[in-house]
Amino acid sequence: MEFPSELKYTKEHEWVRVDGNQATIGITDFAQGELGDIVYVEVETVDEDLGKDDVFGTVEAVKTVSDLYMPVSGKVLEFNESIEDAPEKVNEDPYGDGWMIKVEVSDKSELDVLLDAENYKKLVEE
Fold first, then answer.
1. pTM of the model
2. Complete edge-to-edge strand list for the sheet that includes strand 38-42
């Protein structure tokens, strides 16, 4: 499993890549592995302001449907529409082409409570 060190992580298995005031969010390699083959990703929150821990969408796998949670508060700017037609990108490249949303971060201090790669790795290996 991969845990890129430049990312921040949540206990709910989302990752965050911050670039200035914008964050790209997806699910971790661990999460996609636990879910199995992803068949559909639904995000209907574009242009909405959401709080930390709010549900921004769902991911449907062969076995289950899981909610996707906001790691930080902000406005959802964009949904990765390429995963609508090819949801398997989330399984194949969760930190690259399989990203889910881009968000304008409203409170950057919320990033400070997210896990770094080392602590996320410990969480999933327990």
1. 0.96
2. 38-42, 55-61, 65-69
Helix (H) / strand (E) element for 121: namely helix 117-125
What DSSP line would sit under 65-84, residue for residue?
EEEEE-SS-EEEEEE-THHH
pLDDT per residue as tens digits for the range 61-109: 998 999 999 999 999 999 999 999 999 999 999 999 999 999 999 999 9
Predicted local distance difference test score (pLDDT) of residue 57 = 97
- Euclidean distance between CA atoms 93 and 58, whole angstroms: 18
Which residue from 56, 53, 8, 59 is spatially nearest to 34, judged by alpha carbons? 59
Confidence of residue 15 (pLDDT cuts 50, 70, 90): very high
Query: How many angstroms separate the CA atoms of 23 and 7, rounded?
Result: 10
Tell me the fold of 8-106.
OB fold (Dihydrolipoamide Acetyltransferase, E2P) (2.40.50)
Cα–Cα distance measured from residue 52 to residue 71, given in angstroms and rounded to the nearest whole number: 6
